[in-house]
Amino acid sequence: MTLQPRPGILDIKxxxxxxxxxxxxxxxxxxxxxxxxxxxxxxxxxxxxxxxKNLNLxxxxxxxRLRAAIGKAYNLDPARIVCGTxxxxxxxxxxxxxxxxxxxxxxxxxxxxxxRLVAMQSGAELVxxxxxxxxxxxxxxxxxxxxDARIVFIAxxxxxxxxxxxxxxxxxxxxGLPENTLLVVDEAYAEYVDRPDYETAFDLAxxxxxxxxxxxxxxxxxxxxxxxxxxxxDGSIIDVLNRVRGPFNVNLPAIxxxxxxxxxxxxxxxxxxxxxxxxxxxxxxxxxxxxxxTPSVGNFVLVHFPETKGKTAAEADAFLTRKGLIVRPVxxxxxxxxxxxxxxxxxxxxxxxxxxTEFMA
Length: 361
Known about the structure:
Layout lengths: L28 E2 L11 H10 L12 H11 L6 E4 L1 H13 L5 E5 L4 H9 L3 E5 L8 H8 L3 E7 L11 H10 L5 E5 L15 H6 L3 E6 L12 E5 L1 H10 L7 H12 L1 H24 L3 E3 L5 E5 L8 H10 L2 E2 L1 E3 L4 E8 L3 H15 L1
Parallel strand pairs: 1-11, 3-4, 3-5, 5-6, 6-7
Antiparallel strand pairs: 2-8, 7-8, 9-10, 10-13, 12-13
Helix pairs in contact: 1-9, 2-9, 3-4, 5-6, 10-12
Keywords: Amino-acid biosynthesis, Aminotransferase, Histidine biosynthesis, Pyridoxal phosphate, Transferase
Catalytic activity: L-histidinol phosphate + 2-oxoglutarate = 3-(imidazol-4-yl)-2-oxopropyl phosphate + L-glutamate
Pathway: Amino-acid biosynthesis; L-histidine biosynthesis; L-histidine from 5-phospho-alpha-D-ribose 1-diphosphate: step 7/9
């Protein structure tokens, strides 16, 4: 082949979504992608269905009504919001807009895999800062970032660990970084967090012109299939993102369903409460089996398995799959002896515990 892509592109390993099939199992239980087991808001579903009458029309390129609904829900200026095809697209747009070959991108040790993709797509160098107890270490991030990091990506809470750092620590990070370093705080799981020292970084994005906060409709809102996300930042950054995004990057059904979802606080509250109970159950039950479970505030748990032959994470994954229970191996994150398990419906959580009880016996 004579036509070759830009150097480095063929080094990229495409993102691999959580598995959805178990061989020989007709209706497996999928707990591999951190989806909302309660589905989505009935109001969002109705809005999606109603939008099908207008599929011949282009959507509003600025998602004006959706941005207004988000702004109202979070007391944010809609002019400082941009919507995207999932928060993943917005992360990639930030890379397209602000990274050049050779730039340094920093993440925590077990940061979301998309950050690596963003860096590699732009020919930038990704450097990971060591974590402490599977938690972002601000001092380590600052040391690795130095004076020349172009972008620092921090997921808070983090995926796949489920851990978080306090708002004071996020502020300390911003204040310790150079003014020409962009801090991107990925808050995909923020709506699930129930901790007194956790706050969104919206205030930092309002205060600084080099902070971006990203959110998604894929998790607590249950709209993963529609690929919808948004970012909040200084107007100068929003202007740049609007220049590099596609003119109709958010489709009409997603806009309509997103408006209904953001307004359905009852569904959000029920989803968060179900998750709180599920997290407590999984921590207690799996810990009782002698497994090490990293304390999580997301809608999943990171479970660590022994290296003993017959009890490893890979063997546990195969055992669960044979029973029609699909979870997420996290070896690509540097965690070969761990599995990430989404909090599911009560019956599905019980199946996981029963299966792992048998496996660990």
